Amino acid sequence: MAVTIKDVAKKANVAPSTVSRVIADSPRISTDTKKRVRKAMKELGYHPNVNARNLAVRSSKAIGVIMPSSAETALQNPFFPEVLRGVGTVAHETEYSLYVSTGGNDQQLYEEVKRMVYGHRVDGIILLYSRMNDAIMDFLVEEKFPFVVVGKPYENESSITYVDNDNVSASKDVTNHLIDFGHTAIAFIGGTTDLVVTKDRELGYEQALKDAGIPYNEDYIIHDEFSRSSGKKAVEQLLTLNHPPTAMVLTDDMMSLGVINMLEEFGLECPDDISITSFNNLYLSEITRPPLTTVDIQIYKLGIQGAKCLIEQLQSKDEPAKRVIVPYAIKHRSSTKRLHSND
Amino acid sequence: MAVTIKDVAKKANVAPSTVSRVIADSPRISTDTKKRVRKAMKELGYHPNVNARNLAVRSSKAIGVIMPSSAETALQNPFFPEVLRGVGTVAHETEYSLYVSTGGNDQQLYEEVKRMVYGHRVDGIILLYSRMNDAIMDFLVEEKFPFVVVGKPYENESSITYVDNDNVSASKDVTNHLIDFGHTAIAFIGGTTDLVVTKDRELGYEQALKDAGIPYNEDYIIHDEFSRSSGKKAVEQLLTLNHPPTAMVLTDDMMSLGVINMLEEFGLECPDDISITSFNNLYLSEITRPPLTTVDIQIYKLGIQGAKCLIEQLQSKDEPAKRVIVPYAIKHRSSTKRLHSND
DNA sequence: TCTTTAAATATAAACGCTTACATTTTAATG
DNA sequence: CATTAAAATGTAAGCGTTTATATTTAAAGA
């Protein structure tokens, strides 16, 4: 077997507890013995066994990252890798490990979270999505297990720590941008309605219309998954309307890609025939034709902040529930155009 | 504290060992007591503590997934999430957990791997890249730690289990496709040269040229990271040549995106002015304009197979080194065009 | 020099599980 | 009905740490 604390102890002529204490760099050990023990560790090639340690201290120094269940489409959206990168950065700094979910469907995911929690696999969890009546979130609050959500909780908002953008305001801003450009027939294409983020962005869209005195048109509202195929479907639906929109507020860059593609099939050009605003500012959004006017929600920062909050929560037991709002910024590119100014 | 095996034992009036055996569904326990114990577990809400279990059995039922160090650019390429999805699928089926690397630079990553290995955090490792003189891979063989690589090892090829495509052949095929279309001025833009995959694809490209009797032109070969910005740089370099190429073999869809974008800035259209073949068949590749003719390397399957191989290796100690070649398929779309047939 | 106190280290009991081995119970055999 | 074998369960020793408590050693005070 591998070399243990006892081997080191023997070699350095001390008790195992002493070795343990020099690992923890306890001030109760004289610098002399510390040196001696460290030498022995080096010579033997000692490395602590985390399982044993975790068992003794009842923690795992690991955090679980839960992505939406529909792994099929979820992981395909660069949003997730990008938050993950943020989370990973602070995890690395603080020497936490990252456990990621693998569940394919809702049920599997739920089982997996239970395994993480009950099995003491992780000390805390980061939820990378937020939807209504989510069994997993309910479970976590029920169990009083430390977690933070990236996005806004659909309930218990004040008692759950979360990091989010001000999506209402962001959505209002882009809609206003479209209105400023003279558009009044503005469609909204968002993700599934059970996602809190969709709700918020729709709300912002509505507020902007209302403020501008533009009547709300139900036909202009479409909800679907975040994916390219759904984007296509959405376009089809809108373009066959009597009064097709001249602009659209989309809530995801990937979706926008699909929409623009579909538009072309219908013989329409963006932004000449239709203006588009988007969300996320994925690295793709500046590479598409046209480059997208999109809301930079600072995905990486969302990840950073989420992880930070969680770890704070883990370090001091009764850290209060926090809310951190990551600022957004609209990237004005070329997917929107002033109405009636066909040059 | 949480409910332990002893609590269950007491409640069910059996010895802890019996409970343990029930958990393992050992045939040595009568169905009667099994039932009784299971009932007790349910009533008490028992869940095994993995740390304790791992310590006892000296394993962790977890596999480590190592992505390239430059997390900045790496995770941005949907290739990685997609393999991860494959890996996750089989991990889930076999009840393994997934540990992912978080290291930002080479050194950090190396440290992390050591922590995984020495700390008994994972039972095996999947390397999601393969480059020359990789300290991590060397470390793993040195330690005789179970691992598989997705990609082809740069050395010890016969003693390391890996899953890969036949990249030489694939690259040859796409190059030939270009040649068939009448192109002779064909450039190659690949990732950094220390990546084995780049080597292979370049080799295929060269072979195709040679077979067709087309002289090798060093100016046509460009190496860089897999990213969009590097793609742009590459284009610039090629177009300012005396005899700029009429076609290019690119080794990554993301790069292709950048290239096409850049081409436009130079006033060139793909495929009218220049033909492009690509690799990976990311979901984007059919959404771009033009949709890319690209090699479908079946990323998801690479992940599936990689995980399968690793787990086989973990289950039976002396599983022989394997090589599994995932078949590729060229997706013919609209980014290539017959030379001189300007319609 | 003898206490008293502080500093340094050792002892041993957890942590929650698995498993080799021992023991008891049950069934089978002559 | 005793004997033996097989089946079912129990006992206890790990797995490699941490940590409360005890012990030893060294320094300080009287």
Automatic annotation (TrEMBL), chains A, B:
This is LacI family transcriptional regulator. It holds the Pfam family LacI. InterPro entries: HTH_LacI, LacI/GalR-like_sensor, Lambda_DNA-bd_dom_sf, Peripla_BP_I. It comes from Streptohalobacillus salinus. GO terms for molecular function: DNA-binding transcription factor activity; transcription cis-regulatory region binding. The keyword DNA-binding applies. SUPFAM superfamilies: lambda repressor-like DNA-binding domains, Periplasmic binding protein-like I. It comes from the Bacteria. Keywords: DNA-binding, Transcription, Transcription regulation. Residues 3-57 form the HTH lacI-type domain. PROSITE patterns: HTH_LACI_2. PANTHER family: HTH-TYPE TRANSCRIPTIONAL REGULATOR GALS, LACI-RELATED TRANSCRIPTIONAL REPRESSOR.
